[in-house]
Amino acid sequence: MKFCFRALAATGALVALGLPAAAQTEVKIGYALAPDSHYGVAAQKFEEVVTAETGDQFTFTHFPSSGLGGERDVIEGLQLGTIEATIVSSGTLANFVSETGVFDVPFLFRDLAHARAVLDGPIGQDILAKFDDVGLVGLAWGEQGFRHITNNRNPIKTPADVAGLKIRTMENPVHLAAFNAMGAAPTPMAWPEVISSLQQGVIDGQENPLSVIVSAKLNEVQKYLTLSGHVYSPAMLLVSKPFWEGLDDTQKAAFEKAATEAATAMRGYVDNVEASGVETLKERGMEVNALSPEEKAEFQASIQSAYDGYYKTYGEDFVNSIVNFK
Ligand code: PAF
């Protein structure tokens, strides 16, 4: 609304001066989470910087909370040129650029600093550039943090505790293979269906980072939180290639700068929620346990058969080059 008023005011001033109003280009930006989530904060920063750099040539319309559909639908909208921008997880990105899936391999990264260094380094930047071949422009890697398991059945300490657990995964074959190998009963599902499926008991649990568990208030539908950190969850700021091709070089530079600042804002949000999120969720009534390094090692060992598949798909040397990246 704020932006519509600003656009109207600017147009009105030009008309009053007898000058033709310059056309503003609309940027529809869709994302799965609320305006006060890490995605909302990043989308807001993206808009702010584009506006500061281009002087109101663009007007942004935000569609938070999956207002334009699931992440896959939104990415397809970008390819068609009906949606201009999005911030998405790696949930469905591998369906568009298969190499992206390597970042979803469980227990790949030691910590956030390791993941950020890989995404910002040559490996991450090469993969980002590949989106250009599929009607998309990958502007920057953001992130959600490390994913943890929530559920309503029981606390989780060993792989035996997830046996038969109906757990929602993203529509991502790498995650699916891991939960199958663990002995769970994974159900891939688009995010907009998750909360109602948890409420109705169609699934027992799900997995997401603290950024999502806190901002989507999953404590309202989940009892147990296990800090498993089983996989890092990158996010990406993408724009539509048809839209991008209509921009001049100065505008492209503004969007690139804005995406970098948006990604920094997203990482800042994640740093904060990683520090405070567990306390927040305990205060909201969740029962929380953290896996010890030994317990984590047991989970990693339980998915060895999935690793055989990952090595086949991405190459063992490539996976290890990420593991050993300094
Ligand atoms: O679990 C997912 O699908 C994603 O992490 C989410 C919540 C849509 C954020 O991108």
Automatic annotation (TrEMBL):
Molecular functions per Gene Ontology: carbohydrate binding
Signal peptide stretch: 1-23
Cellular localization per UniProt: Periplasm
Pfam families, per database record: DctP (PF03480)
Main location per the UniProt record: periplasm
SUPFAM superfamilies referenced in this protein's UniProt entry, alphabetically: Periplasmic binding protein-like II
Transmembrane segments: none
One cellular component (GO) term of this entry: outer membrane-bounded periplasmic space
InterPro entries named among the record's database cross-references: DctP_fam (IPR018389), TRAP_DctP (IPR004682), TRAP_DctP_sf (IPR038404)
Domain of life: Bacteria
A biological process term (GO) from this entry: transmembrane transport
Keyword set, alphabetical order: Periplasm, Signal
Protein name, per record: TRAP dicarboxylate transporter, DctP subunit
Lineage: Bacteria, Pseudomonadati, Pseudomonadota, Alphaproteobacteria, Rhodobacterales
